[in-house]
Amino acid sequence: HFNFSQLLDLSCVSHMPxxxxxxxxxxxxxxxxxxxxxxxxxxVDFSHNHMxxxxxxxxxxxxxxxxxxxxxxxxxxxxxxxxxxLTHLSxxxxxxxxxxxxxxxxxxxLSLRGNKLERIEGLENLKSLQxxxxxxxQINSLCGLENLHLLGLINMEKNMSSTCIKSSEDERRxxxxxxxxxxxxxxxxxxxxxxxxxxxxxxxxVLDQEKVTAEEKVSSINKYDPxxxxxxxxxxMMHLVYEMMQPHxxxxxxxxxxxxxxxxxxxxxxxxxxxxxxxxxLCQEFCEYFAYGICHTTRGPYFGxxxxxxxxxxxEEDFQNMIHMGKFIQTVQYGGHSYGLTRDAIxxxxxxxxxxxxxxxxxxxxxxxxxxxEPRYILLIPTxxxxxIGHLSSRGFYTPAQIDxxxxxxxxxxxxxxxxxxxxxxxxxxxxxxKPFVSQCFTMVWNYLFDINMNPNNTNTHxxxxxxxxxxxxxxxxxxxxxxxx
Length: 486
Ligand SMILES: Nc1ncnc2c1ncn2[C@@H]1O[C@H](COP(=O)(O)OP(=O)(O)OP(=O)(O)O)[C@@H](O)[C@H]1O
Known about the structure:
Elements: E1 2-3, E2 21-23, E3 43-45, E4 65-67, E5 88-90, E6 109-111, E7 131-133, E8 153-155, H1 175-181, H2 193-200, E9 206-207, E10 210-211, H3 214-224, H4 228-244, E11 264-268, H5 275-285, E12 290-292, E13 295-297, E14 311-313, H6 316-324, E15 328-334, E16 337-342, H7 343-351, E17 355-360, H8 362-368, E18 376-382, H9 385-395, H10 400-419, E19 426-430, H11 437-454, H12 468-485
Parallel strand pairs: 1-2, 2-3, 3-4, 4-5, 5-6, 6-7, 7-8, 8-9, 11-17, 11-18, 12-17, 13-14, 18-19
Antiparallel strand pairs: 9-10, 13-16, 15-16
Helix pairs in contact: 2-3, 4-8, 5-11, 11-12
Bound molecules: adenosine-5'-triphosphate.
InterPro entries: GK/Ca_channel_bsu (IPR008145), Guanylate_kin-like_dom (IPR008144), Leu-rich_rpt (IPR001611), LRR_dom_sf (IPR032675), P-loop_NTPase (IPR027417)
Domain Guanylate kinase-like: 262-450
GO molecular function: GMP kinase activity
């Protein structure tokens, strides 16, 4: 183990074939002349020297650790790609503006601190990389690190302050896309600085020399890609708080009584699976039991839609005002628009002595499940994807991207049903080849109810003798169960 000082050349060590560790740091070495590669050399520290030209390193194939910090030269990485045993490489405080020729190495530790890097490139194939120091550069994006799954320690201190990544409207964010769509500022004073990096590099254990805590990991996920339950809990909490800030109003028709909650039916499933049409038809055909709960939306009406029938169409500003006035029970963002169900919409139906029937996406269901309402939930799930795509396309409203989102959400519903038994009270698989979704579902519902009401021999007629709420519950119960038998 040699340590020199004021050394000018390395010829003296060329004749030490068994040398394993060479520390030639902090000298005056400016060239490699006369230094022949040593077969057993494992660790070399050439840092803090004055080389203007680096020797071709291709002959140093046995090297495992190489320190080339502060050697003040620009073109020194030559033949590094041949050092296939290299695991630790330090190139700090040089003038590197581009990373190259490292991609075939199995490096686990890499320091590029204090260089002139503006972007991270050439590291994407360093799959074994565990520790990376990129501090003191001018980097403004983490793009290029997204596939380094073993990266546990990173130092990004003192990089350029600029907004690196623009936010995206696209809801289908893959983890790679997220590298582009999280808006973060690299100044460490920014509150989101750590969270955004911890989120993007989820295997990190140390960031900027500070341990990444479990709390930070959870907060970063909740911030940038929150699970649906978290979104729903926040939505519920927000509406609850705004409602509490308003003068107290007693919604007597929808308050749960001691023995039974207000009866409500929620049809859920991916966009355009037929739930809206089915809800309307149920409310028309069984108008003595159900009425449609009209949601609010900020999207514009499609051709043929009427304000106050399909939705209350409102501006984003009005929608926000309604949120602040504590009007909503739940709201969701879907396809870039806001949708929400107000307490008044349900109360209007309840005042007529009817059960409220609404349709909504899964996020709405999750939020509603946090409230004191206890609806029954029916999931309508397309079983034939091609037919479902055809159905979406034939409406002519949706872009291919919107169709892709709707189709991908079939899996979300199926997974929720698989993973949470009892989450949906019933499931209607829709989409046989011969009949469109809604007619098929409706015919099943209608025939069954018609049979109960009209057939004098039917023992189920006792539903009419119960109290009104119980009747309504019974009706919903029947709806739930008939699919189990058909
Ligand atoms: N209050 C709400 N909460 C959650 N989801 C809602 C709410 N109101 C509507 N939705 C859902 O938002 C999605 C988009 O609604 P929109 O009316 O724009 O869709 P659509 O293309 O007409 O499809 P659909 O026929 O399913 O309504 C639909 O799946 C709808 O059920």
